[in-house]
Amino acid sequence: MSLKDELESKVKSIFSEQWTERDGQVVPSVEDLKLGNDAVKLDGVVLYADMSESTKLVDSKKAFFAAEIYKAYLHCTAKIIEYEGGEITAYDGDRIMAVFIGDSKNTSAVKAALKINYSRIQIVNPAIKNQYKDETYQVKHTIGIDSSNLFIARTGIRGSNDLVWVGKAANHAAKLCELSNDYTTRITADVYNNLHQSVKYFEEKSMWEKVTWIDMNKTIYCSTWWWSVS
To answer: Which pLDDT does position 200 carry in this prediction?
Structure first.
């Protein structure tokens, strides 16, 4: 069979094969799904954390320094996500995607975001300055969070495959990460409306600014606050 014949046959089967779907109780791994039309459905919150201006970092600094920045930021981000009950689903260069499920998923995801901001301000950036006295570089980042039903399937080819997360939360969280780092955390109204008061207000002062996401014509909430890590 030629490559063209194989591709045509596979694409035809993808569109014609019936889906096997089931509700998930945990965030699935690649091994939990078949390569065919097999899917898990979840009600989840997606968090994307993304370092800002990483291309400029790589282009203007020595490779070892850029690698240290990546490692420090991603390590803190990953550990905080896990501590708050999230499951890391993908690394993409300087970006992490994570999914939170359960009754407190919105609050847990937002608390993770605020703690990641703390780690950037109070741990990573001071460590850079302590090690490199004359260095002016400081890590900046953006975090996007949204909540929705998710349809998770396994995609790729045998020996080289991964999960694809279909649902507005995955797309919107990623797009929120692409906005400016004037705000470090942006969440949708679906997330904000399900937050515990402790991550909405500090001493009766709102931690969030309500704005319109012009590109999507949606209400979102933005913050520069952080939550201490102890």
So the answer is: 97
